[in-house]
Each structure stands twice: as C-alpha cells, then as structure tokens.
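Q: For a teaching handout, I want to show students what a protein-ligand complex looks like in token form. Below are the inputs, and the small molecule is zinc ion. Please produce the holo structure.
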Amino acid sequence: MKFCQHCAGPITHHVPTGDDKPRFCCLQCDVVFYQNPNNIVGTLPVYGDKVLLCKRAIEPRLGKWTLPAGFMENGETTLAGAIRETAEEAKATVREQDCRLYTLFNLPYINQVYLFFLTELQEPKFAAGAESLEVALFDEHEIPWDELAFAVVKITLQQYFEDRKSALFPVRMFNLEYSAERQLSTQLVSHSHQNEW
Ligand SMILES: [Zn+2]
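A: Here is the structure, written as tokens, with zinc ion included.
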C-alpha cells in the first residue's frame, strides 16, 4: 500500500500516537489502515459413511485434497460463507439447519482463523467447481491422508472419524504454532463437552 484510499496521500508504516504497533498510516488525512486476521470458513460435508473432499485446482497445494473452504466475504456470516464456498468449490447444496460449528483453528503465524462446520448432505449431488479438479466422497479408509492440502483439514477429518465412534461431535478450538525448529504443533484449547475447567 503506497497511497491512501481516501485522499491519495502518501502512506507510511509507523506506530501511530496512542498505539503500540506499527500501522500503515496516511500522512495527509491521518487515517490508519489496520490489517487484521482473515477468516477462512468451510464445511465437512458427510453423506452416509463418507466425507466429501475437493482436489485443489489452484495454488497453494494444487492437486492436493481439501475440504471446501475459503475466505469469508464482507457482509456475510461465517456459516453463510461456508455454505457459499461449498457451493462454489463442490457444487453441493448445504442447508443452514444441517450445519453445526465443529472445529476452529487459530493460525497466528499466518494471521488466519479457520472455521469448519459439520454438515450432512441431503443427496450425493456435487461436481468440481472452478477451484477444484475433482470432488469425491471418501470412506475413512480411502482418505488420501498423505495428499491432504492443509493441517487444519487433516485434524478436522481425524477428529471427525474419532468422534463418530461415540456419535458426539463437540466443538473444538485448536492453536497451531510453529516452534523455533519449524515443527508445527497443535494444541487443543477448548472443547464444548468439557465438564471441568
Ligand atoms: Zn489520506
């Protein structure tokens, strides 16, 4: 960002008065352009014993399998965004009343928050959208575990198959962080069926 969206004045990067972090600020009209984490919203669509995955047609992780998900748009709710992404990437229709919040991931190292909703497909109708090469239903033993695009997708699927044994699907929040050795670690931070704190 070099010029102000409001007055076309020059932008600098500095700590504004009363703040403690450097921000992009306009020298001319004093507007501060805050940069905040992005929400990525998606679904884990289930049909019978199978889950729906999409093979990515775009970078990053082109050719890898993922759950339908994408950046939330301004003016929409998290669930509306997840349903829209499912329609766009998998051409699958999901109803709001069939969705429940399932996993939330904080990824502070890339300033992202992921939210997945667990949902049941009413019928096995789907097709590859513009951002997918292929969309398919997978049994647990068919999941391409080594070909999954993102850690958040892998954790959500592992959690789902584990939870399915008890037919209880609590909401879980995880923090993903990289250690100094560049190892990704996953920490379960909260769990909606916890009895004790
Ligand atoms: Zn300005």
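A: Two things your students might notice: The longest strand covers residues 38-47. The domain at 38-191 is CATH 3.90.79.10 (Nucleoside Triphosphate Pyrophosphohydrolase).
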